[in-house]
Amino acid sequence: MSDLDLRLLRYFVGLAEARSFTDAARVLHVAQPTLSQGIERLERVVGTTLVDRGPRGSTRSVALTEAGQVLLPAATDILQRIERALQSTRNVAREAPLAIGFGSSTPRDVTSRLLATCDRLAVALSLRHVPWGAELDALRNGSLDLCFLQVPENFTDPQLRVVTLRRVSRVAVFSRDHPLAGRDRLELAELDAEPIIDAASDRDFWIVNPRPSRREPHTVGPPATTVEEMLAFVTAGRGMAITSLSVAQAHGGAELSFVPIIDLDDVVLVIAGNAQDRRLAVTALLAALDAAEVVK
């Protein structure tokens, strides 16, 4: 069947509908010899006669053989399916660009994978930087179509459609002259007495409250509203903070020290959209990112 192409099926369906080589050639906008040769080629591919041409040749009204009658509905269905697929693809291309949010903690390789996937799917997008804590509101009010989030492992929201991309460990961040700076790793209990920068968003998760030791975290303010604010406070020596490894990878430098916390649950990187949004572009993009092993 490697020799079968869609033109042959179109010729066959067109001839079956017109019942005449002359009329079918006119409707299909091809020369009559081209149509006749195409039908003959299709018959060679399937290995049987599909058209009863009658004794007077190709200009006479034609009828389908029994084999042709079997092939006709299947050929029609194939052509209709392909046309629907092409139309869906055209619809995706005509849709307004998807507004996709990312934050300071979104890993760069993930946004690179997003852009490559959108190019492959011919999905138009606009990337928008979203302040820490504003992501969920932007998704719910429709100002974003999709957004990258870092959430606890047990995160659920019935209003959102969520695809998990990877787990990211949490780390402690200190100013370079802090006594714990430069450690290879540490346990959460070692931070119980440390002043920790307060968080304006997802507060209990990022300051780890309650603590396994039942000690109340000693927070210092003002609460950081962005990753950049948090790191500025830490650099100035106001306190330490707990953040994700992706922040360390994006913002590491001589002024800061990031140390793995070995007994603290990971954060989960997801991409989320509105649960009711079933547009083809959104569904295709989420499915592609879910299947991309490079992101896992």
Automatic annotation (TrEMBL):
Q: Name one Pfam family in it.
A: LysR_substrate
Query: SUPFAM superfamilies this protein is in?
Result: Periplasmic binding protein-like II, Winged helix' DNA-binding domain
| InterPro entries xrefs | LysR_HTH_N (IPR000847), LysR_subst-bd (IPR005119), WH-like_DNA-bd_sf (IPR036388), WH_DNA-bd_sf (IPR036390)
Residue intervals of the HTH lysR-type domain: 4-61
The alphabetical list of record keywords is: Activator, DNA-binding, Transcription, Transcription regulation
Q: Which residues form the signal peptide?
A: none
Q: PANTHER family, alphabetically?
A: HCA OPERON TRANSCRIPTIONAL ACTIVATOR HCAR (PTHR30346:SF0), TRANSCRIPTIONAL DUAL REGULATOR HCAR-RELATED (PTHR30346)
Q: Which family does it belong to?
A: Belongs to the LysR transcriptional regulatory family.
Q: What is this protein called?
A: LysR family transcriptional regulator
Origin organism is Mycolicibacterium komossense
